[in-house]
Every structure is written in C-alpha cells, then in structure tokens.
C-alpha cells in the first residue's frame, strides 16, 4: 500500500493587470464607476477659481477712476453732499470703511443673495435688473450657440469621415463667413432681409404694443424678432465648430482601433459615430463649455446692432456708468455660468473618455 503524498497548498497570485485591463472599461467588480477622486480634485480647483474670480470682481471696479455716485452727481446737480454720502453707503463704497471691511461686507451680502442696488436703474435690486435681461440673452444667444455647435460638430464629423470628397468645400465657405466682423454681417442681414425684403423686423425683442406674457401672439413676436440675429450668430460661429471637428476626425481616423473596427467588418455608420466621432468630440465639449461665457455675457455687438435687450448691453451701460453693484452682479453671473459649464464638461469628459477615470480603476 503506497502512502499518499501530502498535497501542498497551491499559491494563488493576483491577476496580471495587463490581462485584466487598466482602463475604466474593466473596473474591479463591485467598485463604483464614478470617478470620485477626479471629480473631487476638479471641485477643489473650481472652488479656488470661484474665490479668486469673486475677489477680483470686488477689487477691479474700485481701481477705476471715479464711481457711480460721481457719475450720478454729474447728471444731477441738485443732490446734497449728505445724500451723496448716503448713496455711497447704500452702494457699499463708503469711504469711511476700510477696503477689507468692504470686502467682508460684500461676501456677507453676496452669500445672502443680496447683490446690492443699481444706481442706473433707480436703485432697483441688481438681481431684479439682471433677471429681466438674462432670459433674453440665454434664449437667443444660447439657442443659437447650441444649434451652431450641433450643426458644426455633426457636419465636421461627416466631412472628416468623407475626406477628399466634394463636401469639404463647406470648410472654406464657413471659415470665410466666420472671418467677417459680426457687426458688418448683422448690418448686411438687416439691409437685405429687413429693409429690402421686409421679411424680418429691424430690431427689438418684440413689436410695439406687446408686453411680455405667455401667449401665442407674444411668442410669435419673439420668434419673429429673434430669427435674424440667431441666424447671423449661427453663421458667424459655424466655421469654428466645423473646422475643429473635421481636424479632430482626421487625427482619430489614423488610430489603430479605427483600422481594427473596419477590419472586423463593422458598419461604417457604427465606426463613424460609436468610435471615431465619440473620441473626436472630446475637445469640442471643452470648447463648448468655454463658450458658455459668451452665451451668458451676450454679444454686445449683436445687442447693439439689433437693439436687442440682454446682459451684454446691461454690462456695457454699467461699465460706462461705473455702476459697481451692477458690474459685479453681471460678472458674478458670467463667472458662475462658466464654472458650472466647465464642471459639467469635466463630468461628461470623465464618462466619455475612460483614460480620465484610470485613477479610480
């Protein structure tokens, strides 16, 4: 009878990282796919950026010569010195307080949602003044920017996929249109479609005799008045989106995974949208997030050419009138919009590009 040799325990080694995969597409079982470390670091960065922007927003107007009260006194000679001092105290530019105390007071009021009052608008709250101008800018410029981004990105992806075809003639055409100064493009559109053809009104957000209300007649007026400036914005910004997407597509199409996907016999439409365009669109997302400042800030030239009410014209008037509170309120809205848009772009970037999630894998 032969003795049975004892079996030694078999050592189990950890799986090779190269076999398991190091990207977020093969994360460890039970582990969250949400890149919390990446998002946390970006959140800290944006909090610091927000503090720096608000601090600059406070000090920069105060380095300008004069203030809103001086401008008001130049237009109204009958204001007493006591009333002028009371206005400065109301606007937060009281010379009796130190700059540090004014800075702390500004933070305290801002955290409570009080952005002060606007001297140029009859001491109305800044939040009320901005809230009346912001929807017009977001509705017009925001809609036009989104449409331009979608058309340019999709068109650039198709043109890049069909490189060498006749469709590439759209690149020089749209690029040439984007080089035309916007005010000149707007004036040409008014001269052709408003003055000669009389298809669209010359300017304003709605016709005379109408008041803002949620009714089919008023909505029709807004669409009719906003079509011409929206089309000019789309034409002026389309070239950049289309050219950028087309160039990124040409770079992505030379990658090995595109060749492998085509060698497997996958349909061209799937290779185009599932592999090539998905990776080529990543820089476009960041550019679109940066353009949010353009959306909220409005195009001052557009609002001046078409006499359109919006935040851009509001900011111009506040700067000329040295209205500290209104300037700071508009800058704050623009800063918050850009930061929020960039945070959303980082989140979308993290989920679309697995390489940004490797720190969590």
TrEMBL record:
Localisation: Cell membrane; Membrane
UniProt KW Transmembrane keyword: yes
Regions that span the bilayer: 43-60, 133-161, 182-202, 222-243, 288-309, 329-352
Gene3D superfamilies: MetI-like
Segments forming domain ABC transmembrane type-1: 134-345
One annotated Gene Ontology cellular component of this protein: plasma membrane
UniProt family annotation: Belongs to the binding-protein-dependent transport system permease family.
Membrane topology: Multi-pass membrane protein
GO BP annotation list: transmembrane transport
Native species: Microbacterium oleivorans
Domain of life per record: Bacteria
Keywords associated with the record: Membrane, Transmembrane, Transmembrane helix, Transport
Alphabetized InterPro entries for the sequence: MetI-like (IPR000515), MetI-like_sf (IPR035906)
Main subcellular localisation: membrane
Protein's UniProt name: Putative oligopeptide ABC transporter, permease protein AppB
């Amino acid at each position: 009878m032969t003795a049975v040799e004892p079996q030694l325990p078999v050592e189990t080694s950890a799986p090779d990282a190269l076999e398991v995969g190091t990207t977020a597409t093969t994360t460890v079982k039970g582990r969250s796919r949400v890149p919390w470390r990446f998002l946390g670091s970006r959140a800290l960065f944006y909090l610091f950026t927000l503090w720096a922007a608000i601090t600059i927003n406070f000090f920069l107007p105060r380095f300008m010569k004069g203030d809103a009260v001086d401008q008001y006194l130049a237009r109204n000679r009958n204001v007493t010195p006591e009333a002028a001092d009371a206005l400065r105290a109301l606007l937060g530019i009281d010379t009796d307080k130190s700059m540090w105390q004014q800075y702390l007071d500004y933070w305290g009021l801002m955290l409570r949602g009080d952005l002060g009052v606007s001297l140029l608008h009859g001491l109305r709250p800044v939040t009320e003044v901005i809230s009346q101008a912001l929807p017009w800018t977001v509705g017009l410029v925001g809609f036009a920017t989104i449409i331009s981004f979608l058309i340019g990105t999709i068109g650039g992806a198709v043109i890049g996929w069909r490189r060498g075809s006749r469709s590439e003639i759209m690149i020089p055409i749209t690029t040439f249109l984007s080089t035309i100064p916007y005010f000149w493009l707007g004036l040409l559109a008014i001269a052709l479609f408003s003055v000669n053809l009389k298809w669209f009104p010359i300017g304003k957000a709605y016709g005379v005799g109408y008041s803002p209300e949620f009714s089919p007649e008023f909505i029709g007026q807004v669409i009719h008045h906003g079509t011409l400036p929206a089309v000019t914005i789309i034409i002026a910004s389309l070239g950049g989106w289309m050219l950028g997407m087309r160039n990124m597509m040409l770079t992505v199409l030379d990658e090995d995974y595109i060749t492998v996907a085509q060698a497997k016999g996958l349909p061209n439409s799937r290779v185009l949208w599932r592999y090539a365009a998905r990776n080529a669109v990543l820089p476009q997302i960041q550019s679109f997030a940066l353009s949010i400042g353009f959306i909220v800030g409005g195009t001052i030239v557009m609002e001046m050419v078409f006499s359109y009410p919006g935040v851009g014209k509001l900011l111009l008037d506040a700067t000329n009138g040295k209205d500290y509170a209104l300037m700071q309120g508009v800058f704050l809205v623009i800063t918050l919009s850009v930061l929020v848009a960039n945070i959303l772009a980082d989140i979308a970037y993290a989920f679309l590009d697995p390489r940004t999630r490797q720190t969590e894998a």
